[in-house]
Amino acid sequence: MATKLLLTFAICRLIVTMGLTLEPTELLRLGLTVDPVDVESASVDFGLMTKVEPLAVLRPSSAEDVAQLVKAAYESSHGFTVSARGHGHSINGQAQTGTGVVVQMSGVRSSGKPSVWGGDMYVDVWGGELWIDVLKSCLEYGLAPKSWTDYLYLSVGGTLSIAGISGQAFHHGPQISNVHELDVVTGKGELMTCSKEQNPELFHAVLGGLGQFGIITRARISLEPAPQRVRWIRVLYSNFSAFTKDQEYLISLHGNQKFDYVEGFVIVDEGLINNWRSSFFSPRNPVKISSLGSNNNGGVLYCLEINKNYHESTAETIDQEIEALLKKLNFIPTSVFTTDLPYVDFLDRVHKAELKLRSKGMWEVPHPWLNLFVPKSKIADFDRGVFKGILGNKTSGPILIYPMNKNKWDDKSSVVTPDEDVFYLVAFLRSALDNGEETQSLEYLTNQNRLILKFCDEDGIKVKQYLPHYKTQSEWKEHYGSKWDRFQRMKMKFDPRHILASGQNIFTPTFLSSSKMASW
Ligand code: FAD
Questions:
Q1: Alpha carbon nearest to ligand 1 atom 33, residue
Q2: Does position 18 have pLDDT exceeding 80, yes or no?
Q3: What is the tally of structural domains in the chain?
């Protein structure tokens, strides 16, 4: 009883602070809370580099609850911000807000299970659903989404606001290329259904739109028959040009005679072999890096990671198919590492590594990640200047590198990619440790990120940040380039008071004076 009274009191204070037009009972019914546990968890993210406490947290049970809150924010006389939060796996506070409410989309009571429509090959899911749960529901029907992220404990709304990429993107495109329809609550509090045919402007703006135009409450995702097993292969290269030539060849293949997943990573020191992406090699596949020619190559090796999905009924031909594909590649002949596992274990591989790191206290540490799209024509320059230059021989985490085909990305979406037919994702997935080693400190790694961006700028390597993070609007304008005008127009149309996803730091909420903004 006392707790309820305190909560009602806190909510009455909020009503005054935020200029809300809703009654306290109505706010409680919507799922608004100021419980310190909810507030604390909404004030941090995976990056652990930014802490911002919201005024309150909404735990909605339906799209209508979200719409009612956003409408109240849009109509409020004082104004307040609303930020959707999926699983909070951003790096730089993108899902946080200090001037309003965080809508906790994942892990809320509402959503219900994903609805799988087997005949039409799609699934309807709540925007806060985690991809691991989408997978589990679809597998009950022998189906699965086509395009993934490497890690499945991310929300559907969170990855569709970014793009969502993994080793399938070369063929299926990013996750945003595999969505038929969305329900979205705009910054005016309107709940709208959109697709390529219905409200197409909103549909395209929201996909890869960094949460700027609306909160995704439902997504209709395209499915395919789920493979049962995966043959997962890693091969090594000491020659960067041979490595990228093979990756580019592999992503040019179509039809059945191709791998289903193409990724890769850079190995700049033997320590990396023990990190969370590389458990694959051990203990059954011990690798002695120095024995594979990295000494002749500035200590750098490149690992191509590929897989072929299959059904048990076609198991007898899988070896031949893989052999035929591997024959065309130029890796170090003694460096083939193969494993075979159920499809779901392959997709959920990073979670295993997460559990290991958690047990060692190494998951909840700052993550100064840097993700870049690098044009194909400059990837060799990037190798020379960054992998063999700036990095030295310490990395503090995996460095992914894999190419994608631009024609699998819909240019109408809000994402920006380099202006070439093929571009690479280069992802520096670093963990900062407070263990006295300078090269693992947050300051050192953050500075290294700066040096990498500076090198690209000075060398004319026109990279685009993936999961972009900028501090000023002029940097955002440059990031969006020719898409900026449309981006801004869509913002005016769908979120005219700039109340949504202010943690991205692209637009200033209109109710905040510039002096208030500076003190955020
Ligand atoms: P949050 O961090 O909660 O939110 C991210 C942004 O999206 C915020 O601006 C938020 O306001 C907005 N948002 C959240 N939900 C909604 C919604 N329903 N509607 C509208 N806007 C919303 N990315 C890849 O592409 N490929 C990978 O392989 C990959 N692997 C990763 C592995 C790890 C361990 C981590 C931590 C991240 C990885 N990412 C990867 C990045 C990840 O996709 C993004 O950070 C994504 O935004 C996180 O989803 P989330 O649900 O945690 O979003």
A1: 151
A2: no
A3: 3
